[in-house]
Amino acid sequence: MYKIFFLLLLAGKITAQSKLADKIVGIVDDRIILLSEVEAQFLQNTYQSTLPIPPDYKCQLLNGSLTEKLLVAQSIIDSVDVTDEEVDNELDRRVRSFANVAGSLEKLEEYYGKSIIEMKDEFRPQIRDQLMADRERSMIVGELKVTPSDVLVFYNSIPKDSLPYYNSEVEIGTLVLYPKVSDAVKAYSKEKINDLLKRIQNGEDFATLAGAYSEDPGSADKGGELGFVNRGELDPAFEAAAFSLKKVNEISGIVESSFGFHIIQLIERRGDRINVRHILIKPKTTSFDLNRTGKLADSLYNLIQSGKHSFSEAVNKFSDDEYTKSNGGMIQNPSNGTNSFDINDLGSYDKSLVMVTDTLQVGAVSRPNLFQNERGESGYRMLFLKSKTQPHQANLKDDYNKIQDIALSQKQTDVINKWLRDRIAKSYVYVAPEFRNCKVIEKWNIKEQQ
Q1: 218 lies in which domain range?
Q2: Is the confidence at residue 295, as pLDDT, over 80?
Q3: Residue from 121, 91, 92, 87 nearest 228 by CA
Q4: Res. 424 pLDDT band, cuts 50 70 90
Q5: Quick one: 26 and 141 in the same domain?
Q6: Which of 13, 120, 290, 430 yields a CA-CA distance of 20 to 30 A from 89?
Q7: Residue 38 contacts by C-beta under 8 Å, 6 or more apart in sequence?
Q8: Quick one: 308 and 345 in the same domain?
Q9: Cα 415 to chain centroid, rounded
Q10: Which CATH number covers residue 296?
Q11: Between β-strands 261-270 and 255-256, what pairing exists: parallel, antiparallel or unpaired?
């Protein structure tokens, strides 16, 4: 699930660049699948993958799309409910996850050529369909389980030379300290934005001042305009002030958020969505602040080494990284939602982490190192290697849970395939002639189509 949104973003860009002439290659009841959608996914996966692409890969992609359409059609019959809030929350999670991969929200916007809000609007229907299909799939498989006996039978059915090979996997935590802005710098920044507020109140154009003075690189060149946003998508303090504005062109007072000081102007309101522009002045840290933070990090490292604080205790008391602090400092793998990283996946997430895991012993904490986060902010970071496995071929002793998951997945696939065969017989299905000889498409009963 986590990979789909990024794939959609990039595939959409490829579609636009390739200017494919659309044609319908699949229909399930009244839902169509376009050739451009299949081609875009194919091009994107080919671009991303380092492995050989199967000859029938386009057929596999079409089969997946047909299956999703059928599940969505059934979900409507079954009155499956997916709320707007659930769709928005899923969009938010995926945007945050892949903004980390891209480096920042701004870099993600730059790559795709649209604002985050525009991207969400574009892909909201696809995300809704995916959630509805997933919910229907869950209803079909129900509470399926596999017993230890099932797992043993499944494991023994796999030829020894076909057992999967698992790379080294690690669990790694982080403790981050950022320099604190001095009171003097904060006062200077507040004075600066107060002067801008007075100029606006005296009649100067908000958008012009935003373009000249705002320190938000994502909106300054747009006159400070953010585009439409929903509740829950902004910094809490900024959001409270923005949504309190009632009249078009109404101006807020000075608002302090985690980013700095803002002035906000309401452009348009549509129910629980608003479009605003803002001016941001960010109080900046100095090299002195950074050096002081480095000394604090060294002291904290010594406390951990002496046993006066465990790593998790130190994270809870001192870490400035809100994303990992609530997880005991452990970094969560965005591709599977767990704390465990295949060593290759960890390299894709952050190459500097791989270098540390090569030298750090399990249970050890690294010395503080200067680093930059995805916003370009400098700080000091300590890393904790909680666990590390050796590369090995799958076996029941070390990999029971993984094998159990594979066995359960196979059982669920069998149930879904049976449901598909029954449901296909009651549905209108069209597949374009060029895909009808694909083995994976055979179950769609297309032999009588013209």
Answers
A1: 183-281
A2: yes
A3: 121
A4: very high
A5: yes
A6: 13
A7: 25, 58, 61, 62, 65
A8: yes
A9: 30
A10: 3.10.50.40
A11: antiparallel
